[in-house]
Amino acid sequence: MIRLEDVSKRYRMGDVEVVALDHINLDIGKGEFVVVLGPSGSGKTTLLNIIGALDVPTDGHVGINGNGLSLSKQANRFKFRRETVSFIFQTFNLFPSLTALENVQLVLDMAATPHAQDRALQVLTDVGLGDRVNHFPHELSGGEQQRVAIARALATGNPVLLADEPTGELDFKTGIQILGLLQQQADAGKTVLVVTHNREISRVADRVIELSSGRIISDGAPRTGKADLSELQW
Amino acid sequence: MKNSQLWLRWSWRDLRERWLQVIAIALIIALGTGVFAGLGGQKRWRIDSLDISYARLNMHDIHVSLADGSFILRDEMQAALADVEGISAAETRLIAPTLVNASQDGKTVMVSGRIVGVDVSNDGPQVDQIFVTEGNGRALQPNDAGQQVAVVEENFANYYDLQPGNSLRVSGDIPLDYIGTGLSPEYFLVVDENGLFMAEASLAILFMPLDTAQELTGRDGLVNDVALRLDDGADRETVRAALEDSFAVHFPNVGVTFDYPEDNLGRKQLYLDAEGDQEIWDLIAILFLIGAALGAFNLAGRIVAAQRRQIGIGMALGMPRRWLAFRPLLVGLQIAVLGTLFGLAIGPLLMVVFINVLKSAAPLPYYDFSFYMPAYVKATLFGVTLPLLATLLPVWRAVRVQPIDAIRTGNLISKGGGLNALMNILPLPGKSFTHMPFRNLLRSPWRSLLTVLGISMAVILMTAFAGFLDSFIATIDLMEDALLYEHSDRMIVNLDFFYTPTSDVVTSITSLSNDEGQPLVSQAETGLMLSGTLKGDGKEISTSLELHDMQHALWVPKLLEGRIATGEPGIILSEKAAEDLGVGVGDMVTLEHPLREGLLAFRLVETEVPVTGIHDNPVRALSYMDLSNAGMMGLDGVTNLLVLVPAEGVESNDIKAVLLSEPGMASVLQIGEITDAIDEVLQLFVQFLAIVEVVVLIMAFLIAFNSTSINVDERVREIATMFAFGLPLRTVTRMQMVENLIIGTLGTLVGVILGWIVLNMMLVARVEDQLSDFKFVVTLSPVTVLVSAGLGILVVVLTPLLSIRRMSRMDIPSALRVME
Predict the structure, then answer these.
(1) Contact state of B725 with A156 under an 8 Å Cβ cutoff
(2) Which has the higher per-residue pLDDT, B416 or B592?
(3) Are A51 and A4 in contact, with CB atoms under 8 Å apart?
(4) Which residues pair with B177 in a beta bridge?
């Protein structure tokens, strides 16, 4: 599903060259719920951005969903993001001037999905926001905003969900709800990649990839076995 | 304030960060301050230049003209003047109409002319002198007396690009030696007998020695006009009264009219123009500065929004609010100063351009373009103050929030509602991203409103100027319609005196033929043309009175109301004259007109005549009567006006060429030439308007660019999110263009409405004084509105294209994490 071959990302900060990713090789299968773990500056968000074609690697090759699309071209990256991956951000990044329903409908309209409004309404209902669809983001709680963001990502129907610290802005209870939603997506066959520095979250993943200084230092199932959501605490 | 250098450096960084927006606003400020500085002194320059020019050329204090057709011996006139005390110099003159042929190198120049015969002895004329600039030939000299020489009035010469030495012929096909091109106070602005300004295209003034003029017109020893300068301290009214008494004794049967410098329409117009134009330039400058202030308000709002967390942190650190406000205010101040400095730099350039335009459009013998400091002070004051004041409100609002509210990030601060709830009341059809532009506008209603108003400032200017021109054109069109609706090829011939219709002079002209004996004229009629004064409602209006045989006339005026009375007393007035005099059809009006008392003597008498009709010509001075009214002027059975219709295939110039050598000819005019000449002059205004439109479009562009650029800044995270979801750059750009389309359309709508109001205010103010001789039609043509609006909207809509590069190079991951 997702294959990274010898991927590196370097950039300059003043006179210093920073290696964000250093010769990463990775395969992630369909329906996997993967958590990428690591401290600040470990390269986890860079990895997510490269997989999501928000950024391009300095070296190496990224292959996703078996397509032979060359992601060096900007137009292809736009198409790829529209059709293959969907993002969930730590700060939600909802459009403040659109209602919850319109935020979801927007991505469907982008893809010219028929009956976009009905579909958006369905997805919002699925994430438990059926009664909040006409509210603007500033009228919703943080958890509700993140659920709108998840609904927006789900509505696209894209096979890969990329979540960057999806619970970072949320309280524990709401964070658990959000993780539950993501887990459901993996169970439904979507590949879910969650980036976090919260080790507790990694306990519910199928697979945990730990990064440090741009390198994979461990890759496998959670050390203590896959836990249930109810067992988490932070 | 401690460590002011730190604050200065900090604010410079803020400026650098938004340098494009800063430059955009500074340029708008520069346009405003530049106009203030460069043209703020134009009124002073023009008035000073006029004062000097009129003074140095000894413009008359009192001007005396004899009734139409009256002439008296110069000696008699001088004797009458000698009895009056208080006169320091008297210039007795002979003024007579003529036909001028100044055709050169295949270019036909045949226009009506006016001979001004002056005494050239003792370096005369002493009053209303003639100024010839270096390189324009020479002035009249004493030894020119009796010679066939002329100095040609400069406005006419410039219009047709004539130079001394060119061929010049007048009625009777008499050649004149064109010795110089000159200016004289009465003709700094050429006005014809109907009160039409800038008549240089159709009226040539020829200054020549008095005895030459007398010989050319067959008026040996006679004069009909006097220009007087009074002793210092002499009371004008007292001198006038003494003149009236003296004239009554010396030539009791001759009517005279007196006028003063302020009655000279050209002089009056030049002074009023200087005043009125200053108001327009000031208005332009103010609108620019308001536009800049609105832009500065938006930018300041954006800057403090971006600095919101920093302000909150400063509050948390216990920093006083005035310190926190200092940084964004310093930015506002620096933008204002930068713009003002730009403006002060371009001011002198505008001044140079303006002076060159002024010198070529309205030449004067002397100029005073001394540096006018108040204009620069005013420019600096407005340029700095207005934009700075505009930044106060957003800054004040920003430093009044609670620290915790300012510091918070994320969901708690993602306010985005604005007036968006309105969209739920009025849902729009279409896809969600077609709603986005509307949503975004409602989300920050203040910025939207201020941008709309900023753009409207530009459109106001464009609309008002275009409307000004449209109104002129519409008035000229009305004049054309009135004059040309029938026999538009007819020619008006003025004779140099009164002749019987069966006289050789008249029959020779009405039966003109070419060398092959082919008739040049298909139809002809005789009439009269006289000057008079209409009186009523405490007002006096000069009128050019035409008498035609209305029953058989080739052309009669079209009436708005009333009837064309034949065989009975009655006068047809212009709508404007009727309004000004407070009369209507059926009312009586007082007409002061010449009454023939002798062969060359006309007395001025007042007769009450009924108003029988109101004609449709917007020129106030034009009045018409049936020829049967000639008896009240003592002119039964004579004519001084011929109307000719050229034979088929005959051009007016063919007739003019033949008429030039006809005896008794004074002047001839093909009726369309009256408006053709004005149309040509209007072309100058069209060019000026084009320049204004370009400047205004630049202003609209800068305002729209500023707003778009701020929007991109503010919405960088949203744009990045759209990109993250694969929305192509073109779609994002299209959304911004739609947003700008709405803003541009609203701005244009507001601008056109306000522009119409400004246009009316400008014209209503001018109609009262400067344009009082016309029934002025205030109009704004749909084509002008559409072109102006189209251009304005187009510029605003296209502005987001300039952000494409910036968006395409956006670092999406970083933008997604932008936190304010």
Answers:
(1) yes
(2) B592
(3) yes
(4) B149
Q: Which two tokens stand for residue B787?
A: 């072109």
Under an 8 A CB cutoff, do B417 and A136 touch?
yes
B150 vs B131: CA distance, rounded Å: 13
Alpha-helix runs per DSSP H in B93-223:
154-159, 210-217
Nearest-angstrom CA–CA distance, B395 and B632: 79
Rounded to whole angstroms, the Cα distance separating B813 from A53 reads 10
- Residue B686 near residue B506 (C-beta atoms within 8 A): no
Confidence of residue B414 (pLDDT cuts 50, 70, 90): very low
What Cα–Cα distance (Å) separates residue B801 from each residue in A145, B440, B709, B730?
32, 18, 11, 10
Q: In this model, does residue B426 exceed pLDDT 70?
A: no
Residue B410 has pLDDT above 60, yes or no: no
**DSSP per position, A68-109:** ---TTSHHHHHHHHHHTEEEE-TT----TTS-HHHHHHHHHH
User: Could you tell me which residues come within 8 angstroms of residue A152 by beta carbon, excluding any fewer than 6 positions away?
Assistant: A86, A94, A103, A104, A106, A107, B725
Q: What is the pLDDT of residue B681?
A: 66
CB contact under 8 A, B816 and A89: yes
SS3 for B661?
coil
Task: Tell if the CB–CB gap between B440 and A97 is shorter than 8 Å.
Answer: yes
Kindly report the nearest CA distance between residue A230 and chain B, in angstroms: 26
Q: What is the pTM of this model?
A: 0.75
How many other C-beta atoms can be found within 10 angstroms of the C-beta atom of residue B107?
10
Picking from B798, B779, B633, the residue whose alpha carbon sits closest to that of residue B708 is B798
Strand partners, A5: A61
Which pLDDT score, from 0 to 100, does residue B411 have?
39
Please state, as a whole number, how many other Cβ atoms lie within 10 Å of the Cβ of residue B541. 22
Most confident of A134-148, B140-154, B181-195, B399-413: B140-154
Query: A136, B416: Cβ pair inside 8 Å?
Result: yes
The helix (H) or strand (E) run that includes residue A176 is helix A172-187
State the amino acid at position B516 in one-letter form: E
Length of chain B: 820
Looking at per-residue pLDDT, the higher value among B264 and A65 belongs to: B264
Q: How far does A226 lie from chain B, in Å, by closest CA?
A: 31
Interchain contact B5–A (C-beta under 8 A)? no
- Nearest alpha-carbon partner for A67 in A89, A54, A83, A90: A83
Rounded distance between C-alpha atoms, residue B643 and residue B44, angstroms: 46
Contact B681, B198 (CB under 8 A): yes
Distances (CA, A) of A225 to A28, A208, A222, B585: 19, 11, 5, 109
Is residue B808 predicted with pLDDT exceeding 80? yes
What is the C-alpha to C-alpha distance for residues B346 and B349, in angstroms, rounded to an integer?
A: 5
- Compute CA B600 distance to the chain's CA centroid, rounded to the nearest angstrom: 41
* pLDDT: which is higher, B352 or A110: B352
* Angle between helix B321-361 and B373-398 (nearest 10): 150
Cβ within 8 Å, pair B414-A138: yes
3 state SS of B666: strand
> Which of A49, A79, A92 has the CB atom closest to B726's CB atom?
A79
Q: Do A106 and B432 touch (CB under 8 A)?
A: yes
What is the C-alpha to C-alpha distance for residues A48 and B11, in angstroms, rounded to an integer?
37
Give contacts of B 726-745 with A, CB under 8 A. 726-729, 731
Report how far residue B164's alpha carbon sits from residue B178's, in angstroms, rounded to the nearest whole number. Answer: 5
What's the 3-state SS for B140-169?
Answer: CCHHHCCCCEEEEEHHHHHHCCCCCCCCCE
Q: Is the peptide bond before A57 cis (omega within 30 degrees of 0)?
A: no
Confidence bin at B436 (pLDDT 50/70/90): confident
Residue B410 burial (C-beta neighbours within 10 Å; 0-12, 13-18, 19+): middle
Interface test mutation site (partner B, options A92, A93, A178, max chain B beta carbons within 10 A): A93
